[in-house]
Amino acid sequence: MTIHGLKVLLADAQTATAPDQTGAQIKFFATMIIFVVILWVLMIAPQRKKAKQLETTLKALKTGDKIVTTSGIVGVVISIKDKTVSIRSADTKLEVLKSSVAEVTDKSGETSEAKS
User: Fold this and answer.
1) Contact criterion met (CB below 8 Å) for 87 and 77
2) Are 69 and 96 in contact (CB under 8 A)?
3) Hey, which of 4, 55, 75, 107 would disulfide with 89, CB 3.0 to 4.6 Å?
4) Confidence band (pLDDT; 50, 70, 90) for 107?
């Protein structure tokens, strides 16, 4: 074989081992899409569900309900305004924002008062 023949063989070998860029890009984008879907299912969807549930709970809030605020204050709802809720905790009357209500622990506040 001559040197010219070796150059031809080496040139053929280089063109045959060229990487497939399109396939690598498709794999990368598919991996990113799968990652975003997993992120959505594990993190974002449950948070949205919990926020909707809390919103419906706040809309159904009424006097006599026992609540817990985000700061840990436990009290009974006395009155409800547009943005605030007045609660009684022990011997103290507090006015807190509706957004600070973390959960309603007992919705039977009015029925227990009626029994007394």
Assistant:
1) yes
2) yes
3) 75
4) confident
Q: Helix, strand, or coil here: 2?
A: coil
Q: Is the distance from CB of 87 to CB of 75 less than 8 angstroms? A: yes
CA angle 69, 104, 87 (to 5 degrees): 55
How far apart, in whole angstroms, are the C-alpha atoms of residue 12 and residue 116?
95
Distance CA 94, CA 74 (A): 11
Q: How far apart are CA 34 and CA 31, in angstroms?
A: 5
pTM comes to 0.58
Judge contact between 78 and 89, C-beta under 8 A.
no
Q: What is the pLDDT of residues 56-83, one digit of tens each?
A: 988 989 999 999 999 999 999 999 999 9
Rounded-to-integer distance, Cα 74 and Cα 80, Å = 16
**For residue range 94-103, what is the model confidence (pLDDT) as tens digits?**
999 999 999 9
**Pick from 108, 107, 105, 79: nearest CA to 94:** 79
Predicted pLDDT at 101: 93
